[in-house]
């Protein structure tokens, strides 16, 4: 580790302009935006403390998924590296490695590499030089401290890291939220962040329904292509004649103004699973039953019954049934 402590001399010889790609609106960036100016040793490095100014938090400020990592390098030669996610164990300078990226070659300039690693708030973002060297920022403030572990700190292992001053780790992790907890970033990796069951587009829901007319209700059998909460409701309408002095007379006692009457029906809400048939009993209200009792079985009232649901993406799906309710007048 003696040569790492001498990195400040090398850092004074290199001046590179910082190049950083803009981040997505809801994603969070954490780590260090310094520009690597030297490389050395097959170490696993993790940032411990930073006093140099930076707009980025050094550790993960939120839970989520790292969907990419960035390295700004002023080193001319390509360097194979892996990003490592290291979690403090609570013991001094001890970290548990909880995740790693695929091996990537860091070249001079701005580097952006895709990955997918779930993280927790407080995790640190380090790097491992998979061949011979690892790039870092030398010549930093004496208060800037990184921890070093010789060779690879493998995933699942915990190690004590040796503090090394005047060293910063050029590593930026892009963290996306993971609303459904499926381990995929909601912005770029998960097309249906409302459900952990799929990472593709949220499936649309197809409803099918079949009515069975009973004496006092309509039994509606409902099936759905995906599990969803289905609401069944309906309405019945008919014309009624309202008599008035201006319309009726002895010669035409039935005259009057026809108006429409609509009565609502309720079938309730149930969770319908694919491969199953749910039974909704839509009760006929007292006004509907009175009306049916006044018309013969040869006539009917028309009911419109709707089964409705909303998929994970907020899109509505409906199945509308037109049902004839035969009259129940007794001869």
Give the helix level as a range of percent. Answer: under 10%
Following the backbone from N to C, one meets helices and strands in this order, namely HHEEEEEEEEEEEEEEEEEEEEHEE
Number of helices: 3
* Unreliable segments of 5+ consecutive residues: 1-25, 245-250
Which secondary-structure class do the elements indicate? mainly beta
Mean pLDDT: 87
Classify the beta-strand content into a percent band: over 45%
Q: For the report, how would you describe the main beta sheet?
A: 8 strands, antiparallel
Q: Give the domain tally.
A: 2
Question: In whole angstroms, how far apart are the ends?
Answer: 105 Å
Taking all Cα atoms into account, the compactness measure Rg is 35 Å
Number of strands: 22
Q: Give the CA-based shape.
A: rod-shaped
Write the layout of secondary structure elements.
Blueprint: H1 2-5, H2 7-11, E1 28-31, E2 38-40, E3 43-49, E4 64-73, E5 79-88, E6 94-100, E7 104-106, E8 109-119, E9 124-129, E10 134-138, E11 145-150, E12 158-160, E13 162-165, E14 167-168, E15 172-176, E16 207-213, E17 217-224, E18 228-242, E19 257-272, E20 278-283, H3 286-292, E21 300-310, E22 316-326
């Amino acid at each position: 580790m003696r040569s790492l402590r001498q990195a400040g001399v090398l850092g004074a010889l290199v001046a590179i302009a910082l190049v950083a790609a803009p981040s997505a609106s809801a994603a969070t960036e954490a780590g260090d935006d310094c520009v690597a100016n030297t490389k050395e040793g097959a170490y696993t490095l993790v940032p411990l403390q930073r006093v140099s100014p930076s707009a980025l938090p050094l550790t993960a400020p939120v839970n989520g998924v790292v969907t990419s990592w960035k390295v700004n390098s002023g080193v001319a030669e390509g360097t194979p590296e892996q990003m490592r996610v290291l979690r403090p164990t609570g013991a001094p300078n001890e970290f548990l490695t909880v995740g790693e990226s695929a091996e990537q070659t860091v070249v001079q300039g701005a580097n952006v590499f895709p990955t997918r690693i779930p993280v927790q708030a407080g995790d640190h973002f380090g790097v491992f030089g998979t061949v011979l060297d690892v790039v870092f920022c030398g010549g930093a403030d004496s208060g800037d401290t990184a921890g070093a572990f010789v060779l690879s700190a493998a995933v699942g292992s915990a190690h004590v890291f040796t503090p090394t001053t005047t060293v910063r780790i050029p590593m930026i992790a892009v963290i996306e939220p993971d609303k459904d907890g499926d381990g995929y970033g909601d912005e770029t990796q998960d097309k249906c962040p409302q459900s952990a069951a799929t990472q593709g587009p949220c499936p649309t829901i197809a409803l099918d329904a079949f009515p069975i007319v009973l004496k006092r209700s309509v039994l509606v059998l409902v099936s759905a292509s995906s599990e969803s909460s289905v609401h069944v409701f309906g309405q019945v309408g008919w014309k009624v004649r309202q008599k008035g002095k201006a319309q009726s007379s002895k010669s035409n006692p039935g005259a009057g103004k026809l108006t429409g009457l609509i009565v609502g029906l309720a079938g309730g809400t149930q969770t319908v699973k694919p491969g199953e048939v749910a039974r909704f009993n839509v009760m006929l209200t007292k006004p509907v039953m009175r009306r049916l009792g006044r018309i013969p079985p040869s006539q009917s009232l028309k009911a419109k019954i709707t089964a409705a649901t909303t998929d994970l993406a907020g899109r509505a799906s409906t199945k509308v049934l037109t049902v004839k309710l035969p009259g129940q007048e007794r001869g």
